[in-house]
Design a protein that fits this description.
Elements: H1 2-26, E1 30-35, E2 38-44, H2 45-96
Antiparallel strand pairs: 1-2
Helix pairs in contact: 1-2
């Protein structure tokens, strides 16, 4: 099952790379971006689009990171409580014998 998951991720990554190459090849116009008074070099429009997509994905991941960490911590705490609850009846049973 883990191998299938890795193969699917590899295939998805390969498709994303091919779509990115296609985007760059179909948008070859060279443009310069003026970002707060600083000119960012002349690059193909497709590369700028890929950079914007990457930046948006990165910002989305960073925005969701605090919630993800909070949920992982909550799962850890609940697992610890579950372990304690499972061990407590076993100890009580041993004391009565």
């Amino acid at each position: 099952m883990a191998l299938l998951k890795k193969l699917c991720l590899l295939l998805l990554g390969l498709v994303a790379i091919l779509l990115g190459i296609g985007l760059v090849l179909t948008n070859p116009d060279t443009i310069t971006i003026d970002f707060f008074g600083r000119e960012l070099g002349p690059l193909p429009r497709g590369l700028w689009l890929l950079a914007a997509l990457f930046a948006g994905c990165l910002m989305g991941v960073l925005a969701s990171l605090p919630m993800l960490l909070r949920l992982r911590r909550r799962v850890h705490v609940l697992n610890q409580q579950l372990i304690k609850l499972r061990v407590a009846p076993a100890r009580a049973k041993n004391k009565t014998e």
